[in-house]
Design a protein that fits this description.
The protein is mainly α. The protein contains 4 helices and no strands.
Length: 126
């Protein structure tokens, strides 16, 4: 998993495109987090922020809302981003949320795949 904020802005690697997002960032997020005994809260907050923007640009409301919660939990705040929570609470919430985000992402990916495959079929017939 990349930390997009660990180097000066001018030297940061380019952010992943939509295809890279689905094939690299999300699977590595789930695998790397599931295999960690300790979570990197700031890194997860930054990743939640990045994924929130990407999913919002695609109109994926539920994924966007879940990524916003990931951002808050990474900052050790409750789901609203207001109340401070403990590291243990944040870790439990993050681990549960990642399962939910994975499911929401897969559902959105399947929907978009069907939608665009249908659109491609219409264009080919014209």
């Amino acid at each position: 998993m990349h930390c997009f904020c660990s180097v000066p802005f001018s030297q940061e690697p380019p952010l992943p495109s939509g295809d890279q997002l689905s094939s690299q960032v999300l699977p590595s997020l789930f695998l790397s987090t599931a295999n960690r005994s300790k979570l990197d809260f700031p890194d997860l907050s930054r990743l939640g922020h990045f994924l929130k923007g990407s999913s919002a640009a695609l109109g994926l409301r539920r994924v966007t809302e879940s990524c916003e919660r990931l951002q808050h939990f990474g900052n050790r705040k409750d789901a609203t981003g207001v109340k401070t929570i403990t590291n243990e609470e944040a870790e439990d919430l993050i681990r549960a949320l990642l399962v939910q985000v994975r499911d929401e992402y897969n559902e959105a990916k399947n929907y978009l795949t069907v939608f665009y495959d249908g659109e491609e079929g219409l264009e080919e017939e014209s």
